[in-house]
Write a structure and sequence with these properties.
Elements (H helix, E strand, L loop, with lengths): L2 H13 L2 H8 L3 H15 L4 E4 L2 E4 L1 H24 L7 E7 L4 H15 L3 E7 L2 H10 L4 E4 L8 E15 L12 E4 L3 H10 L8 E3 L2 H11 L2 E5 H9 L4 E2 L6 E10 L22
Parallel strand pairs: 3-4, 3-5, 7-8, 7-9
Antiparallel strand pairs: 1-2, 5-11, 6-9, 6-10, 6-11
Helix pairs in contact: 1-2, 1-3, 1-4, 2-3
């Protein structure tokens, strides 16, 4: 059984006829029959009822159909990655912490696409553990995370520093605890600073690991939260949000890590990369 056999099965299901499937695939009807025979023998089940009127799925054929479609889609995706579209010489695979995409990862990758039109871009969302595995396996080329990755054949550099400020839907001063406070988890370093600055035993009623989700909830339901300053600048200017008076700001650091064996393919990695600055700090 191979991918061609799977594609032949799907063509017969789609056209409901061996002759039309043969025409679509530019092969003979006998070749279609031979491929279907081989597929059914490999699976140990009859998948199609074939007659002069056409071809219909058996119960086992229905059960196999979705899996066949998944296999075909996976094959198409694999071919797309190995054989880039016209005008593209290679694919750059970036892993990005979902909390770093808006205003940072998105801005940087837009610049990359504009400066290097011969490169196709793919972006996967992941955090530290998965990103480490994907880079070490070679599945991805680089990772934009809140912490640098270390290990054989990996290098990292500081990428950007962003100020996290406490904002609220209503004007107010900072207090040790507020019932409408929304906690946003920016990682271990932030958790330590937050606990030292706001040593309250109370637990936030709502918590998020993604600032985009936190902002969406904040605007819909009200309250306050620590959010990246560039994300809320316009909302502060138009009065939708207010900076909480006397609230101590924090800083979120981001790091770009990459496989050193990819520097020849992407010479703008490493010292050539231009970090996107998100704040004046």
């Amino acid at each position: 059984m191979n991918i061609t056999t799977i594609q032949t099965f799907l063509a017969v299901v789609r056209t409901r006829n061996l002759n039309r499937a043969a025409e679509e695939m530019h092969i003979t009807q006998s070749a279609v029959s031979a491929r279907l025979d081989g597929l059914e023998q490999a699976l140990g089940a009859q998948l199609l009822i074939r007659s002069r009127k056409g071809a219909t799925l058996t119960k086992e054929g229905f059960a196999f159909l979705e899996q066949a479609r998944v296999i075909a889609r996976s094959w198409d995706n694999a071919r797309a990655r190995i054989s880039p579209p016209h005008g593209v010489t290679t694919v750059f695979s970036l892993v990005c912490d979902p909390g770093l995409w808006t205003g940072l990862g998105q801005t940087w990758t837009n610049k990359l696409c504009a400066r290097h039109p011969d490169i196709a871009l793919e972006v996967w969302t992941a955090q530290l553990g998965d990103a480490q595995s994907w880079l070490q396996s070679g599945m991805s080329d680089a990772a934009l995370l809140t912490e640098p990755l270390t290990g054989p054949n990996l290098d990292s550099q500081s990428f950007a520093k962003c100020e996290l400020i406490q904002v609220s839907t209503r004007p107010r001063k900072a207090v040790e605890w507020h019932p409408d406070y929304i906690y946003v988890d920016y990682g271990a370093a932030f958790r330590a600073q937050h606990a030292e600055t706001w040593p309250s035993d109370e637990t936030a009623s709502v918590s998020f690991s993604n600032p985009d989700w936190a902002l969406s909830h904040l605007l819909a339901h009200g309250g306050s939260a620590y959010l990246p300053e560039p994300m809320v600048t316009k909302l502060l200017l138009n009065g939708t949000l207010h900076r909480v008076g006397n609230a101590i700001p924090f800083h979120r650091h981001s790091h770009l890590s990459w496989r050193t064996d990819r520097e020849a393919r992407f010479p703008w990695l490493g010292s050539a990369v231009e970090p996107t600055r998100q704040s004046k700090a």
